[in-house]
């Protein structure tokens, strides 16, 4: 029973960790989407031209846009890492569930064996009682 409780607590902790990672991935995806929207290079170039910026100012704007693109690449890398970690934790959770099932099966076998032993002991007690009475 204690092992079952430990396994259940472990499963609950794993599921909570997976849920937190899923939430974090969603936040990163949203941030990534907004960064992509902000990186509309064509819009940036047309604005620079409309504002009468010099080529150096235009280049500076493009460098800033590139840095934001690098940030997106970094976020994509983080998302991949988180997905990998999530998959790893899912596998560990599946392994724990399998182990839990095996423990439950073993427990059921032991309970059945104890019931059989209990019946045998009761039968022996009845035999001893009849022998001593008779």
Percent of residues in helical segments? over 70%
Give helix and strand order, one letter per element, not per position.
HHH
Distance between the termini: 43 Å
Overall average residue pLDDT: 79
State Rg. Answer: 33 Å
The count of DSSP E runs of length 2 or more, i.e. the number of strands, is 0
Q: Percent of residues in beta strands? A: under 5%
pLDDT < 50 runs, ≥5 residues: none
Task: Write a structural description.
It is built from three helices and no strands. Helix 1 runs antiparallel to helix 3 and helix 2 runs antiparallel to helix 3. The longest helix is centred in the C-terminal third of the chain and has 79 residues. The protein is mainly alpha-helical and 134 residues long. It has one domain.
Q: What is the secondary structure topology, with strand pairs?
A:
Blueprint: H1 2-38, H2 41-50, H3 55-133
Q: Features of this protein?
A:
0% strand, 3 helices, mainly alpha, 134 residues, rod-shaped
What would you say about this model in short?
With 134 residues, this protein is mostly helical.
């Amino acid at each position: 029973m204690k092992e079952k409780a430990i396994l259940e607590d472990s499963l609950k902790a794993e599921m909570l960790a997976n849920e937190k990672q899923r939430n974090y991935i969603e936040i990163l995806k949203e941030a990534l989407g907004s960064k992509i929207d902000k990186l509309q290079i064509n819009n940036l170039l047309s604005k620079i031209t409309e504002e009468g910026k010099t080529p150096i100012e235009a280049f500076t704007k493009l460098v800033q846009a590139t840095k934001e693109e690098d940030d997106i690449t970094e976020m994509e890398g983080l998302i991949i890492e988180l997905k990998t970690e999530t998959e790893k934790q899912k596998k560990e959770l599946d392994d724990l569930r399998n182990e839990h099932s095996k423990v439950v099966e073993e427990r059921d076998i032991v309970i059945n064996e104890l019931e059989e032993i209990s019946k045998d002991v009761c039968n022996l007690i009845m035999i001893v009682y009849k022998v001593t009475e008779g």
